[in-house]
Structures are given as C-alpha cells and as structure tokens.
Write a structure and sequence with these properties.
45% helix, alpha/beta, globular, 7-stranded mixed sheet, two-stranded antiparallel ribbon
Length: 338
C-alpha cells in the first residue's frame, strides 16, 4: 500500500474515533444532562444484543425505578409469611390434573374457587411415591445375552404401577397424588447423595402439603446375586404410626402376593420387614420416606429387576394391571378399617 494511502487510512480512523467520543460525551453531558440532574441522579442504560441495535438511554432515578415490577399486596404478604407454610410442590400431580386441593394452597386463587377438604378428599387423600426417576433409574434389568442392553428400569416400572393404582383408587372415590409424573432415564452414573436425599424429603413434604391420610412408596428390587427373587414390603415401626405402618405393610404385602398368584407367578413371599431391625441400626429407620412420613406409610418392593424371571413379569403390562388392582383394594380396606 502506498505511503499516502496508509496515512489517509490512519487519519480517517482517528477522525472517526474522535467523532464517536464527542457524540457519546454530548449524549451524556449535553442538553439532557441538566434536565436529568434537575429531576434526580441519572441512570444510563446501554442496550445491545444479538437482535437489538446499540442504543443508550438516559433516565432519571425515578424513571428507572418506575420500570421495575412493584410488589402487589399479595406478594408482600407472601414475603412476610415465607417459611410459615409450604405450598404443594410444582411436580405434584392429582389424578384429575391440578385439583382444588392444590389450588387452595395458592393465596392468589379467588376464594370462590377454594373448596373445603371434605368436598375434595372424598374418601381420603392418598400419596403414591413412584420411587427413583428425576435422573435416577434405580435397579435395571439387563438382557441376559451379555450385550449390555436393557429392557426395563425401575423408575419406569414404579411409575407405571403408581399410575395404575391411582386410577383404581380414584374410581373408588379417593383423591390421589403422585410425587412425580415424569418418565425415568436409562442407566447412567450415580447421582450425588445430596440430590437423592433432598428429593426424598421433597416427596414426604408433598404428603404434609396435601394433608394426606396414607403414603405408599412403590419400588422394584435389585441385588448383586441375581438368583434372589420375590416381593417384600418395608415399614418403620419406630415412630408414632408404628403399629399402623406394620398393619399397612402386612396388607399390601398380601395384596402383592395375591396379585402375583392371579397372574400365574409364584415367587418367594419375602414378607414384611421393619426398617430399624433389619438394618441393625437400633431405633433409627433408614428409609427417609417411611421414617419421615406424617401418616401411615409403607414401601413396596415389586420383585427383583436383577432376576430374569421376576423381570419378565415386570415388563408385562398385564402384571401391572393385576397388581395395581390388588394393592388399591388393600389400601381401600386399610382406610375403611381406620
């Protein structure tokens, strides 16, 4: 490039820089500045984004504050009462979508939409907890061909059971909530312990939020010894509902065995198990959902996904339909006896 052309280019760039600086100084210090100063401190918004042109906006402090959302009286009340009551978790699903029982926890819902518990609960409020999910597959059944492929994960099997039991209970007149509705994911790395523990406490919190009468956790089992088979039910006897927990566990365990026999499968009946005694931990139950539940609670283990024969039953939709009917009838019998 010729010397004169280089000098011309450099000179043009210098002039452009000077003009840009002068324009910016004028916008911030020129005619608008006195007016802004008279009304209060100036606030400059420099707006630029992928779809927006560069722009500078000069506002007074009062004008800037006016652009912010102002708290409504309801919002202010909620802020003062924060921590006093817990709303229903966003993932809680009623059998009929979001029921009046859920909506009544929201102070913004008009009073005429709120219903007393008796009008909503019908025969009672049941919380079903399909175990795992939310990134945790639980036990996995791998195909026995050594390929590493799998055909069922516990999270999906648990959800299928919960949805079918819910449908039966709703037909009987109960108000039913599931702690999750999302499907599971395939095998992966273990989740952080903090996430798992927090998730378990949130499931128990749902039972407290909806004033539940009964909490039933639904699981499938797994073992490193693949020959282990059968169904079992856990409960916590070391709390105020201990005797009711044991009764509920015994009833749903028998219901599972009856359903499996009707289906045509006769696995070992592993019976009911008291958490603290089986885990050799004295008076402390290790399962969060049965230990912390404020109502009678039990945890069902529907067969072993690590056992090929048990897994064949769990991948068959017909077995879930039969098991769900028997378990729902046991829950209904328990509630009527109470």
């Amino acid at each position: 490039m010729a010397r004169w052309a280089t000098l011309l280019l450099v000179g043009s760039m210098a002039v452009w820089t000077a003009l840009t600086a002068a324009t910016g100084w004028y916008m911030l210090r020129g005619d608008s500045a006195p007016a802004a100063a008279a009304a209060g401190a100036a606030v400059v918004y420099d707006v630029a984004g992928p779809m927006t042109p560069h722009a500078v906006h000069l506002l007074t402090r009062e004008q800037a504050n006016a652009t912010l959302p102002q708290p409504t009286p309801d919002t202010a009340v909620r802020q003062r009462n924060m921590g006093v009551s817990q709303p229903v978790p966003h993932y809680a699903q009623s059998a009929d979508g979001i029921s009046n029982k859920v909506r009544s926890a929201n102070p913004e819902i008009p009073a005429q939409l709120k219903s007393p518990r008796s009008a909503v609960a019908k025969k009672g409020v049941i919380v079903l907890d399909p175990g795992h999910g939310r990134g945790d597959p639980g036990a996995v059944h791998y195909l026995p061909d050594g390929s590493g492929r799998w055909d069922e994960i516990e999270a999906d099997s648990n959800l299928k059971n919960a949805q079918l039991i819910r449908d039966n209970l709703v037909a009987m007149g109960y108000d039913v909530y599931l702690t999750r509705e999302n499907a599971g994911v395939g095998p992966g790395g273990p989740l952080p312990l903090q996430f798992i523990t927090s998730d378990l406490y949130s499931r128990v919190a749902l039972a407290k939020s909806v004033n539940a009468d009964l909490f039933l956790a639904l699981h499938g089992n797994g073992a490193t010894v693949h020959s282990i088979s059968g169904a079992e039910t856990w409960y916590c006897g070391k709390q105020s509902n201990g005797s009711l927990n044991e009764k509920l566990a015994r009833m749903v365990q028998q219901a599972m065995m009856d359903g499996l026999h009707e289906y045509g499968y006769f696995p070992p009946d592993r019976g009911i198990m008291e958490d603290a005694e089986r885990h050799h931990s004295g008076d402390f139950c290790q399962f969060v959902v049965t230990r912390e539940a404020p109502v009678p609670a039990a945890l069902i283990e529907f067969l072993f996904l690590t056992n090929d024969q048990d897994a064949k039953v769990l991948v068959d939709d017909r077995s879930h339909v039969i098991l769900a009917r028997h378990v729902a009838e046991a829950i209904d019998e328990f509630m009527r006896q109470r």
